[in-house]
Every structure is written in structure tokens, then in C-alpha cells.
Amino acid sequence: xxxxxxxxxxxxxxxxxxxxxxxxxxxxxxxxxxxxxxxxxxxxxxxxxxxxxxxxxxxxxxxxxxxxxxxxxxxxxxxxxxxxxxxxxxxxxxxxxxxxxxxxxxxxxxxxxxxxxxxxxxxxxxxxxxxxxxxxxxxxxxxxxxxxxxxxxxxxxxxxxxxxxxxxxxxxxxxxxxxxxxxxxxxxxxxxx
Length: 193
Known about the structure:
Elements lengths: L4 E5 L8 H16 L3 E4 L5 H12 L4 E6 L14 E5 L2 H11 L2 E4 L4 H15 L8 E4 L1 H18 L12 E3 L2 H14 L7
Parallel strand pairs: 1-2, 1-5, 2-3, 3-4, 5-6, 6-7
């Protein structure tokens, strides 16, 4: 199966570390160069705006999915290939999962965490086809991942070892792309830890 669209979940703010905006720009350029469509939250601010602008700079295709309630708050991007305005956040996430063949997660807030964990849950429970979920920026994700491993897995036994393989942590856009490429060659989610 050839993959065509990558969902990117990320913040509507830039955060304090400029490296994450650089990651968004690098990822956007890479997607466009490999003729992969971007599916994202539809905003024109923060990391969302950075990735969309980077894809568009290189002539790539961008589909934004934004709920009505966030149209003003996230200032929807007006130069996208396609903008889908939906009723609510649940519809947004569902549509993004349906449109993508893989998901990449950049730093963000509560909404980004919600999108990440829902994607993992949908894959874990076979509600959507197995697909790669890649987190970029180990510096940002280390605390959360340590908590997942030490509390959810080891201390409380709420997840299994194989659940750690539902996502991959990398530090560059190129590493994220390579992991997705490898997945679509083998259809295997390889161990992360």
C-alpha cells in the first residue's frame, strides 16, 4: 500500500523552544518534497501555521480540518489546498484519522495530547488500521514517555510492553519520514525502546 497523507498534530502556539518551529518547517518541506499531503488542524498560528506554510512554500498539498468553534481562535489558514470546517473536535479528529496514513506529533498542549492518545487508543483497539505514530523532539517528550513506562507500564500494569511500540520517538523530520517509509515496506511497528 502506498501512503499519501500524513496527519501532523501540533500546537497552536510556538512554545519557548525555537527548535520545534524549525522541526515544523523541516517536516513541511520534507512532506512537500516527497509529494505527501499534509492533514492538520487548519490553523495559521503556532506550529500549525509553521508546518502548513512550509508545505505550501514548496508547492505541497495541505488539508486543514478545523471545528467551527476554533475558526477565530486558531485563525484558520486562508491559503490551504482545502479547508474543512467541521462541527466539533470529535469530528475533527475522526476526519483527520480517516484522511491520514500516518501521524506525526510535534509539541503542543492539551489538544495535541488528546490527539496523540486517541490515535494510540484507536490503533490499540483496532478501530483504525495499524499505522505509524511518530513523535518528533525527544527533549519535549522524555518526561511523558518516562511516566508511561514507569507508572502506566511498570508500576500500575495498565498497558503492555507491546503498547510502547505503537509510537516512535525521533529527533528529526528525516528520521520520522524514514520510520514511516520502513513501516510501509514491512507493515511492522518496530520496537522503540
